[in-house]
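This is your field. Pick holes in the following sequence-structure pair:
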Amino acid sequence: MNFSTNVAVTAVVLLVASAGVLFPLHGSISELETDLVSLETQADDESAVPNRISEINQDLAQLEESQSSREFTLCPDTPEARNQFETLLNREIQSAGLSRISMDRQVGYGVGGTPSFNISLVIEGDAFELHTFLRGLESIEWLTRVLKLEIQPGDTERRIKMLIAVLLEDGSES
C-alpha cells in the first residue's frame, strides 16, 4: 500500500470510529440535558427548604414563648388541693352548660409516671359545650391532661366519658 492509501484507510477508520462515538454521545448529551433540567427543578424545590426551616424555627420559638408565659404548676398532693380542683372542675362543667352524670376520683400515675390525681368524668352536652369546657379546663392553674376522651353518638346531646389527670407534686401523701 502506498502512502495515500494508508492515509485514506486511516481517515475512513477514524471517520467510522468517530461516528460510533458521536452517536452514543448525542444520546448521552440529550439524557444529560434532561438530567440537568431535572436537577435544576430539584434545586429550586430544595432552595425553599432553608426558608421553610427558618419559618418553622420561628413558629417553634413563638410556641415555646407562649408556653413559658403560662403559669402552670403541679397540684399540691393534699386533700385540700384535690377538693379545690374538683370544685373548679364542677364550676367549669356548669359554666360550659354540660350536665354531670358521674365523677369518680382515683390516685394513680399520669403522663410519664408522674403521680397524678385522676378523675373519671361522665358528662352530657353538645360539641360547643364540650369545647367551652375544655377551654375552661385548660385555664385551670394546675397542669392537667385529658388521658381519655370517648364521645358517644347522639343527635345533639352526647354522652362524653373522660379521664382527666391532674399532675401532682412529688413527695407528699397520696
User: Anything to note?
Assistant: Strands lie at 99-109, 115-125, 144-151, 158-167. The chain has a mean pLDDT of 80.
